[in-house]
Amino acid sequence: MSRERQRLAISRPKQGAAGKTGSWRLCRPVVNREKCNRCGLCVLYCPDSAMDADIEVDLEFCKGCGICANECPQKAIVMVPD
């Protein structure tokens, strides 16, 4: 009997009262697909839900906090000046 990976509910980013947050970001995350093992920790820890299940970053909502890069066990995410 194979066990499917259970998905938890993931929140979706929404426009805040001051608009989308990406306009004041100083750094943005860049994912190295060669190093990424798709563990999903970056998606789980992103406080703004700016990353989707395919490890794509929605730069309109990403604040550039770097939590995704910090939590990545493969160091597949680096923060670069925006």
From TrEMBL:
Keyword Metal-binding set for record: yes
Keyword Cell cycle: no
Signal sequence segment: none
Ranges of residues in domain 4Fe-4S ferredoxin-type: 27-52, 53-82
Keywords carried by this UniProt record: 4Fe-4S, Iron, Iron-sulfur, Metal-binding, Pyruvate, Repeat
Cofactors (names): [4Fe-4S] cluster
GO molecular function, one term: oxidoreductase activity, acting on the aldehyde or oxo group of donors, iron-sulfur protein as acceptor
Protein name: Pyruvate ferredoxin oxidoreductase delta subunit
Native species: Syntrophus gentianae
